[in-house]
Every structure is written in structure tokens, then in C-alpha cells.
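Lab notebook, entry 410. We have the chain sequence and a SMILES string for magnesium ion, and the next step in the workflow is to get a structural model of the bound complex before anyone spends time on docking refinements. Request logged below.

Task: model protein plus magnesium ion, output C-alpha cells.
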Amino acid sequence: MKITGIKTFLMHAGAPDLRRWAADGSFGKQTFSKNLTGTRNWLFVKVMTDEGIVGIGECSGWPRVIETGVRDLAPLLVGEDPAHIERLWQKMQIAIMGHGMTGVVGAGAMTGIDMALWDIKGKALGVPVWNLLGGKVRDRIRLYSHANAVDAALSLRERGFTAFKCGGVSDPVRKVAELRDAVGDSMDIMIDLHGPPWLTPADAAQVARALEPYNLLFVEDPIAPENVDGYRRIRDHANVALAAGERMATIFGERDLIERELVDVIQPDTGRAGGITQMKKIAAMAEAHHIMMAPHSGSLGPVAEYAALHILAAIPNGLILERIEDDWEGREKTIIPHPRQENGYLRVPDAPGLGVDIDEDFVRQWPSEMNVSIPVTEKAGSYAEGTFDEQVYVQTRFRRGVYFGKKKPT
Ligand SMILES: [Mg+2]
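Result returned:
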């Protein structure tokens, strides 16, 4: 079998009038899931072969830019046998050595292609991808969804969810206390602080310590992702499970967090960490350190979510999968078939390959418009030193008790 070409499908994944950041659902009037749709793009790729088998994959990270990366890589793959996934991964990595090798953009481009190659292999052999990865450890994957308010958490529980994540650094302790009080021990709770560069390790350690009594499944991205040494400081001062890794890519990018045991849960993004090839290796590295894997996935595209199901089915240290249940309605129309959660779980697909395809006609109806934005807060347009509105990457917030105390910020 030979690869004959690669097609890309870029779409605007949501209502374009909602141009907001996903940084914190508690800012402004929009609900959390709608925050995501304003600048969110999904990029799907199809790898064609001379035997008529077509593989599908997804690249997240910075989709409008990554589309160019995929087109640049395509000539390297045309004429190659898609069976040799590792060899082709190495060829792509060498090709972008010197410019795009590190980070989620280069790895994002390689991710979609790698995912499609696994899909082709599964279809060619007539087996699901989980079978190629060593078979199933589990038949269904536990999910968590997002809730920032009590009514949203209770609604998830009614629909069968057993875990949810809240987010934001504006008042994490108050929020978690309220949510734990409402659901008791019936659900696992997580919080995502979204890797804020305006939260110093000292502040993050204080926040983490204040969160100790609430028995969280994990505290995610308490500081900026580049501040790897800061994680050590937080770990030394707070007894909470830490999670990070969504903005890193490949075994080389995730290595420090794992080998230095700076996290309890590693969260490579299925759409941008370097493909199924890298996800499997990252999981194995983590396993050797008794670190669980919870792929960052739910806020991104539905094809990457399918890939995550196969990976989590096959690895022993798979913890839980992120899924925004109340997402944009177009998510359901983008792929065939659409997986439905049952009692907070998704069944692992049994069709050959990944078991998913996109509806190309639907995707074409949502042309990409933009992919970047800056946070919009209630004080948008103002310049307020030491607050979110300053919009400076590395900063310390003033009046920190307002943000990190148990009271609602005013
Ligand atoms: Mg996150």
C-alpha cells in the first residue's frame, strides 16, 4: 500500500459571535462551554492510499497554522507505505528539526497524520486501533465534564456523570468549597487553574494547600507550563494531586514532568502531543513512575476524542477522559457516529481503525475565521495593574487575598 495524498479540513468549531477565551468561565456572562467556541477551530486530516483505504486524524494546537504544517509535510509521505508508522514519524520529526521540532504546533501537525496512519492500519487489518495497541484493559472509559456552578454539577450527576472539573483562578477555594458541599462525596471534583503566569509558585502553593480538605482528584496547571521548577515548590508545600502537560508535546516535552515526578497525573493532548505513537510512549513513561494519564481532549475535536478512547482502553494507567457534555451542538454533526455517554462513560469503539469519520459537507459549512483571541473580562479595555486586565504574561497579582481567599471577589 502507498500513500497517495493528504487532505486537510479546517473548520470554525462554534458560533463565531462568541469570541471569548476559555480561561475562566466565571468571567463575564457566558457559560463555560460557549466561551470555547468563539475562536476554536478544528483541523482534520485524511491520508489517502492507492488501495482506497482512507485514514482520518485530527490536529489541534493552533489549527489555522498547523494546516500549513500538514501541507508542508505531505510530500514527504506521498509514495510511502503507511504501515511503517514509527519510521514515518521519525521522518517527519527529522524534517522539521531545526525549526518546528518542539512544541504543540509541529507535533500537532504530526499528530493528525500519525493518527490517520493508525486508522489506516486498523482498517487494513480489520481491527480497532485498541487491538493494535495491545488489546483492551477496559471496555468503557470514565468521563468527567465541566461545571462551575452547583446547578451545573447537579445536572451532570443527574445525567450519570461521576466526576466534573471546575476552572479558574479568580476564586478557586470558594468555588471548590461550594461545589463539594453541594455534591458531597458522590462525585470526584477537579479544578483547572489554566496555567496562569500571573499565579506565582508561592501563591499556587497556598491555593493548593487551601484546597487540601476537599479531596480533589487533581489540581490542574496551577502555574504557567514553562515554570517546571515551580511544580516542585508546590509539591513540597501541598498535599494535593497535581496534573499538567496539556501544552507539552512528545516524550521529550513531557519528560521533565514525569521523570522528576512533578505531577500525579499527566495530561498530553490527544490532538497535539505527537499522535497515538507518542501517547502510548508517554503513558509507558508515566506508568514507570506510578503517574496516571488523563488526556486533555474534551474541549478539542471529536476525532481526537475517539483516538483517546482507543488509547485509554489499552493503557493500564488511564485515569479519566475530559469531555464537555454541553458543548456546541455542531460537535455532534461533525462526526459519524457520535458517541453518547452512558452513566458517565463512553464505550470503546469496536469498528476497524478509529471507527469514526467526519461529515465533510457539515465541516464545509463552518469556514475558519480566526484562531486567536485575548481574554475578555468584565473590565475589558481597562488597564489595571496586577489584575487579569493588565494582560502581561508574567506578572504577580495585587490584592491576592481577593483572588485566592474563601470569599467571592468583588
Ligand atoms: Mg487545562
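Notes for the group: DSSP finds 15 helices and 14 strands in the chain. Worth checking against the assay data. Residues 384 and 390 are 5 Å apart (CA to CA).
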